[in-house]
Amino acid sequence: MFKALVLRKDEAFGAQIESLSEDSLPTGDVSAQVLYSSLNYKDALAITNTSPVVRTWPMVAGIDGSGVVLTSDSPDWHAGDAFIHNGWGLGETRFGLLSERARLESKGLVHLPSGLSALQAMAIGTAGYTAMLSVMALERHGLMPGCGEVLVTGASGGVGSVAVALLSGLGYTVVASTGKLDEADYLKALGASVVLDRAELSGAATRPLQKERWAAVVDSVGSHTLVNALAQTRYGGVVSACGLAQGFDLPGTVMPFILRGVSLLGIDSVMAPLSLRVEAWKRLAQDLDLVKLERMTQVIGLEEVVQTAQALRKGLVKGRVVVKVS
């Protein structure tokens, strides 16, 4: 038997720690012990039942995790191998990793890079992995240090915090937008040059084109914030969209795309191909300052997850939350 955070929706929704048997696990060619998981915004939506994240009931929560392979039918994985898993429907259509045991499909696993511990991997987690995918997308579009200011929205959250640390470490001038101005010192310690009040971006856009400022943007907020960021992006600039904390609507116009040649890049972390995942994790191990990572990270136990998810959903949590599972 093992412990897991189980979400049920019978007569009413419930989220609680339960003891499960190995027989309850889904099919898969790798069995694993989960050491750490993390809390991401999608986890918070699922655990608080405030968005239709979960598609199959009951569900074990947790979209990511790190741990050790116990048994494997895959030639690519062996007992004792350290792994990272992100996405691929975990916590949505397959049992997730807020669980001491898991049965997984080997195609979704990434070997833990040299230089990262299992805890550090989940301090990065899906949020930080998404931030890295965003940075890589901007780079593929031609962004280089010296091009100008790079805006990071939702900067005190998980994606935003890692994006600020990554971009500043790579030599970019980072402007951090946040609704928590009391966290300005935290964001500057991560590498932000300037901290903006999110109110400057979160209202309905007054004009389809605004004063040009940003060479690039990492946006985890969506809705009006993304529209204003697009309207302020410089000619030929690039914006990555990787979140929807404010909303999934896009109440703007095509003017930035047509008259300024701005590019909007969608970032998907859930179904990204394995080659891209491996590259992202290799870059994270290489480019992310682990001192900054520790500064943005708190560690909780499995029994604290539901309460912390409620706080995360309300925007009351900064940085990254690691869950010590086993």
Number of strands: 16
- The helix count comes to 10
What is the CATH H-level superfamily of the largest domain?
Answer: NAD(P)-binding Rossmann-like Domain
How many separate domains?
2
Instruction: Please state roughly what percent of the residues sit in beta strands, choosing from under 5%, 5-15%, 15-25%, 25-35%, 35-45% or over 45%.
Output: 25-35%
CATH C-level of the largest domain: Alpha Beta
* Biggest sheet record: 7 strands, mixed
Tell me the helix content.
Answer: 25-40%
Our Rg estimate from Cα atoms comes to 19 Å
Mean pLDDT: 96
What does the overall shape look like? globular
Terminal CA distance reads 13 Å
Indicate the low-confidence ranges by residue numbers. none
Order of helices and strands: EEEHEEEEEHEHEHEHEHEHEHHEHE
The assigned CATH architecture of the largest domain is: 3-Layer(aba) Sandwich
The structural class is: alpha/beta
Enter the CATH topology name of the largest domain: Rossmann fold
Report on this model:
The chain is an alpha/beta fold and 326 residues long. The protein has 2 domains: 2-112 and 296-324, Quinone Oxidoreductase, Chain A, domain 1; 126-266, Rossmann fold. It has 10 helices and 16 strands. It has helices spanning 41-47, 118-140, 158-169, 184-190, 199-202, 223-232, 255-259, 274-287, 290-295, 305-313, and strands at 2-9, 13-20, 30-39, 59-60, 64-72, 82-86, 101-104, 109-111, 149-152, 173-178, 194-197, 214-219, 233-241, 263-266, 297-301, 320-324. The strands form 3 sheets. Strands 3, 5, 6, 7, 8, 15 and 16 form a 7-stranded mixed beta sheet that branches. A 6-stranded parallel beta sheet has the order 11-10-9-12-13-14, with helices on both faces. A 3-stranded antiparallel beta sheet has the order 2-1-4, with no helix packed on it. Helix 1 packs across helix 10 (305-313). The model has no long low-confidence stretch (mean pLDDT 96).
